[in-house]
Amino acid sequence: MQTWSLVSICVLLAIIARWGVSLNSYSGAGKPPMFGDYEAQRHWQEVTYNLPIQEWYFNTTNNDLNYWGLDYPPLTAYHSWICAYIAKTINPEWVELHKSRGYESTQHKLFMRMTVLVADLLIYIPAVVLYCLYLTDGSSKKKVSIMFCFLLYPGLILIDYGHFQYNGVSLGFALWGILALGLGWDVLGSMAFSLALNYKQMELYHALPFFCYLLGKCIKTGLIGRGLFLLVRIGVTVLATFALCWLPFLAEPSQAMQVVRRIFPVARGLFEDKVANTWCSLNTLIKIKSILSGDSHFTLCFLFSVPQCHFKVNSSLAFFLFSFQVHEKSILLAALPACLLLNDLPLMALWFLQASTFSMLPLFLKDGLLVPYIVTSLGFLFFSIYLLSALDHCSEDKLRLGAYNKLFYWLPKMDLFYISIAAMVGLSIATAVLIPPPHLPDLFPVLVSTTAFLHFLGTFIHFNVVQFSEPPSRKSQKKSN
Amino acid sequence: PEPSSAAGWASVIRRISLEVRFGAARSTDFEVHRNWLAITHSLPVSRWYYENTSEWTLDYPPLFAWFELGLSQVARRFDANMLQVENLNYASPATVLFQRLSVIVTDVVFIYAARECCRCVREPKGSRDVLSRPSFVLAVLLLWNFGLLVVDHIHFQYNGFLFGFLLLSVAKHLQSQHLQGALLFAFLLNLKHIYLYVAPAYGVYLLRSYCFAQDNKDGSVRWSSFSPLRLLALGAIVTSVCALSFGPFIAMGQLPQVLSRLFPFKRGLCHAYWAPNIWALYNVLDKSLAVLGVRLKLLEEAELPPASMTGGLVQEFEHSVLPSVTPAVTLVCTLLSILPAVASIWLRPHGAQGFLRCLLLCALGCFMFGWHVHEKAILIAILPLSILAVESREDAGIFLILTTTGHYSLFPLLFTPAELPIKVVLMLMFTIFSFTALRKLHSAQGSLLHPLEVIYLLGLVAVAIACEVVFPLSPWQQRLPFLPLLVTSVYCAMGVCYAFLRLYASLLLRREEKPKQL
Known about the structure:
Largest sheet of chain B: none
Membrane topology (chain B): Multi-pass membrane protein
Radius of gyration of chain A: 22 Å
Radius of gyration of chain B: 23 Å
Order of helices and strands of chain B: HHHHHHHHHHHHHHHHHHHH
Pathway (chain B): Protein modification; protein glycosylation
Number of domains of chain A: 1
Strand content of chain B: under 5%
Number of strands of chain A: 0
Enzyme class (chain B): transferase
Oligomer: heterodimer
Helix content of chain A: 55-70%
Helix content of chain B: 55-70%
Protein name (chain B): Alpha-1,3-glucosyltransferase
InterPro entries (chain B): Glyco_trans_ALG6/ALG8 (IPR004856)
Number of helices of chain B: 20
């Protein structure tokens, strides 16, 4: 069958999966007074549409920053403005200043879900399709399989279409950036990535690899001459993109500072909720929070993250594992590069992706998304195992352990995989069904995040080993990934 | 074969997820089946066909009632309250879960039947890419059939289960196991009497090709080869199944009541939404003549009956200009329409393939001319046609037309805005697959569709956009709310009629093959 028909069928299936999840509940449904992320997005539409731009990030009588104040960079605000404009034409009640707080209706939910789908269709899905068709190698059937599994990654679907966010936009832009770099269009790539950064500041997780790669490329082509020219072009593009996005806020320095303060709230604590983070896990053993003060937290994190400059997965994982103020949703940023690895290391990639979805289970339970979680995870596991023959790829050279093989030969890979899946299933059922003992009310979320942390740590070590054990000729190819 | 089983598993996941995500309790069919669970569980057998607390009375044959009784034993463990007859529109989460699970589980029959059908398909010689093998294409066409997914999983019925029986019976006949096929069909007929549509095909085929063990050299009947033993076997099978199903009711003398429930001719020529058959075209002709007559002052507007043929409630009505149609008329038309097909397999049987073709023509004929036909009945023709489509180029062309129009005519079944993306995306998926897969299968023999046919099908897209997008935003929404339904059924009726005629042509003009010895 022709590739285009296979691709369209896969994309349509992915859309069905997304719309199916959409019909379920969202974060904060029916839970006044604060509701959840869904209400936050609706509120931002209300704020951006009704208030002048200068007031968006400031605490004014009309704009109470304690009730879901804007804490993403300006591109999110512009996106909310566009959605609000459309919302106003359909039903002005949805974005009426102050009066529309906590507005919930089936029509409105449909509208909000539609905005996510449209954004996905315009930005994320084309990036995935083009990436898989042009930057992966293998037969066309293999490419379509990878694309399909990529699109079916449950974590992103559940967060964007269930919990309710627009991660598809920022991840999509980042993916366009990666795609452009892979095709050699560095300037466009840097522009795309700047757009991603201006949409969500969490894309900083991916910033280091981008920066290192581009800098490395400039140095390689010679810092005097073409390399310098390239560096200048990239620098100008990035600055121009940032300037364009921040234009309304550059009139006054106080405006820009306020936006920065909203985007990077260093005043908050080391971690929120139970996140599969080193600090969180360590916290169960030592009460780190009480020992160190706020500033020293920050420097510690930074020190840990700097060495991992090259491999994107490693860097984003490192950030996640050791960073400051991490939401469990940030694992999505590590998941994106993992999806890119579905071609080379199918087993590890899908193992990691499944673990990342599992790590967000407490969040899904809070949002009433248990059933979509089960169905999408099962679907993802089934399709990726069947289509990518992932279980066949566990021989030593396929796992690319190279020289470190002798160190890990005693680890029974396949058994570990099955055990971990069983553990995830078991914990999922337990968290959903059992009631924790009264003196340990957070038992299950903590168990979930600790298990997930172990998985992430394991994957982190494995990917590091793979990266450092590769022959140098492949390394330069890998850098473009 | 491996890929077909993968297709099977994938379809299981798809069905389960469709059920789970899209299944909503608001479909009336959901309440219908809950009511039947309650009736069969709580009331004595003698009251089953008399009960009318709810408007959704039991109107399927008794074997289905026994099936519901069996289900109700399991339902008891989920939520006993659903089994109270008085609990109208009861839809607790446990009830919904149970009902949906029951559809998923009974779908196993359908998946098994699809597998059997795939085994009957001839594989052409030469190694082929897995995705282009006829058995794989057939598996996907059956398991991922848009109409079945929509009707069963989003709308709620047990069609997967019933069609499983039909396809299994057809597969058995194709494999020359006629007694099993007859048994399965007897079961099917007693589960849902709509399959009477295709009973003539079974009757004539079995009589002609099974009871007469041999044919003459030129294909005509050899009267001397009549085998009373075979006839007896068939008779025994049919009678015993009917006895199992109707027995208790005949014993209680309730047969007339049961029959009146099964065949409620009071219901009107057309369903609330016109099925795309001849009578839809007839109605439109009548309406346009009436409007024309009033414009040209040939008729008095006061003389015309009120325009409520597409009203929400089913009711009887009269035509204003053309003669009114009674049930007797539809019966005669139906019989006339299937007569040539049935006669053809009597005079010149073409073996099991001819039987399948005749079955399709009977199904389509009854669909075209029947009384109070549901648009869902088009699936009785579409599903078996898939088997022929993967083997012959001409049938593939007919299949594409019939399927695309038939599936599109199911669109009005899902009318909420939340379901719009689902039905559009599912329809696109199935259409893209059927077109590309069948084209690849028959690529060696030229194109599948005539340009005019392609234009007609593209017209469907225009109709879809007009009905789903343009119409709701236009001023006619208030004045003529049923216009999109009318346009849909009329446009699809043309496609269905065309497919009907082409199928007839392919049966009657077929070159004779040597009839098989049974």
